Amino acid sequence: MSTTTTDSTIQPTTEPEQEALSTPTLQDDDDSYIIDLFKRRCPHLVGKSTEKDSTSDEGTKKSSSPTQPGSSTIPNLESLFSGEDAIQYERKDIFFGNVEELDIWYEDSDDELNEDENQVTQDGNLLGAPKKEKEDGDESEEEMDVTKINLLKFCQLNNPSLQGDSFSRTAFQDQFKPLFNSPHLSDVTFLAQDASTQEWKKIYAHKLILKTRAKFFRTMFRSGMREAKQEEVRIQSVPHDILLCLLEYLYTGVLKIAYEKALLILAAANQFQMDDVKQIVAQYFAEIIDAEIACLLYEESFFHNAAELRELCLSYIEENPERVLNSTAFQNMTIEMVLEIIKSDYLVVEEYTLFMSCVAWAKAQAKGDSSDGTSDQEWPTYFAKIVEYIRFPRMKPLELRDHIEKEYKDVVPRLYILEAYKYHALPKSVKSIRAHERYNRSSYKWSTTNKSANIILSNGDLTAKMNSQGSRTVCADVLWSSGVHYFEVTIDSSDAKSNIMVGVADPGYVGMDMFMSHNSRGWAISSPSGERHHNSMSNAYGSAFGKGTVVGVLVDLSTREIRFFVNGTDLGVAFSNLNGSVSPCISLYGKNDQVTLNSQARPPLMG
């Protein structure tokens, strides 16, 4: 049989509609291919074992008896060290697929199997498949013409213990490890270039396994795709060793990451739409991250659409601002990334320190782009692109007078300096975003002690639910005495006429079996009316809300103000008489009331 090769730059392409669709590559023995695959690699799924045991790569014998699902609790990710330069991550909780993913036909056909007739005998033969009447003298027609096989039902019928939505990795996925990059039973070969020699190397694979493990390959090997007709597929944009690494993960659940290859793995995973691999790469970097790595990866995370890695880097930058701002990597960042960082409401750093770091960045950019020694004249051009996002009103008056106004008056617009002076004289008169303080972000949850006994906590103490009717309160396990803070709660469920309050209070003044606002140290908004409540008094404030609403609370202890947001809409300042220390609080009333806390929420823009 002649071998045909197609070039692929990862994205599967569809042939013109006028071309006839090809049949699967293994035309001579399609049904025996599947039967043989499972009889050889999953003997315990076929009833009668065709192999007594299998040998691992190390040469040790392993029993072929199945592992019962649920026999042990295994962590999501377990990192194992393999060699000196690579960390091996093994996904022990992943399954070969769920019902939807495993419901894959090996061969496309217009015929449909009758589900009631689909049975498997103890010797592994599939019965009930559509078959044609055998004509006399027709020796080419098999006695059982298996045109397509449902992988999930095949396995479950052979082993009732695998009934359910998923198969355990031990009972199913490990059986395919010997097939990794093996020509045995292979029906597709990938060609990828060696990064050092530029030589094209082969990687043997099996369409059935790839289609079952990754949506990308289900699309690539669909009948209408060009690659579905080819025995060899040339991958242009992924080096051989990186492609080999990803395919090994699909076969074994093990991802081996070395530092110099981590970004290449991330890039390939993005192209192959393997989100689980991107999550593992993010975990790998979480263990080694520093200021230089955070700046580098933050930009890469946007390019490779890696949300987990982006959040990891931004959190590190926000928690270690001075390390990052003083690093060479920050000075080399693009303007887009610098703007993302200095816009962050959680970058808790002295504003003058941030200003000086931005000046250093502008000078570094000008020096890098200048070849004639004119960088000293060019850097203000770069600085002008970011200056509006520096919060000058948050600088100290002496910093404004002695440094900004005297040393940098030519690069800082006079309007921003006057705005800063005005803020220090009349804080409430300045509404600009530059006057907003950056927020302290920390993780917290509902308190297990400062709560009513009739409120039940779950979801890691983030969800609070009533178990009886009456006025009940719970506070968070954090106490604020200064700074600016923001949190949100989602009303998961509530009774039609229930009264749910959201706000802040001093836990020392609140009775946990009454509403949080029935004292002088509690401030709240309530559903369904949208009224504001304090010291047993209520006033009109917002519009009605209830189940499904996200309520945000912004507390500024420097101005003693609190404002509320409903589904992202700023309702304005509700109170300006905060005093003492406060904690996030909620009060519930109805038996079905339930709310969930989000302490990591970012505040929306204020109106």
Largest sheet: 7 strands, antiparallel
Give me the CATH fold name of the largest domain. Jelly Rolls
Please tell me the total number of domains: 4
Catalogue the unreliable spans: 1-35, 41-85, 91-169
Termini separation comes to 70 Å
Biased composition (Low complexity): 1-14
Domain B30.2/SPRY: 424-604
Biased composition (Polar residues): 62-76
Pfam families: BACK, BTB, SPRY
Question: Would you kindly provide a written description of the structure presented here, covering whatever features stand out?
Answer:
The structure is a single chain. With 607 residues, the protein is an alpha+beta fold. It has four domains: 25-53 and 97-132 and 141-171, no CATH class; 75-95 and 180-286, Potassium Channel Kv1.1, Chain A, CATH 3.30.710; 341-435, no CATH class; 446-598, Jelly Rolls (Sandwich). The protein is 28% helix and 20% strand. The chain has 17 helices and 25 strands. The strands form six sheets. It has a seven-stranded antiparallel β-sheet with strand order 12-15-24-17-18-19-20, with no helix packed on it. The chain has a seven-stranded antiparallel β-sheet with strand order 13-14-25-16-21-22-23, with no helix packed on it. The chain has a four-stranded mixed β-sheet with strand order 1-10-8-9. Helix 7 (259-271) packs antiparallel against helix 8, helix 14 (351-369) crosses helix 15 (375-383) and helix 16 packs antiparallel against helix 17. The longest helix is centred in the middle third of the chain and has 19 residues, at 351-369. The radius of gyration is 32 Å and the shape is flat. The protein starts with a strand and ends in a 9-residue tail after the last strand. The model is unreliable at 1-35, 41-85 and 91-169 (pLDDT under 50). Residues 424-604 form the B30.2/SPRY domain. Residues 1-29, 45-79, 113-141 are annotated as: Disordered. Residues 62-76 have a biased composition (Polar residues).
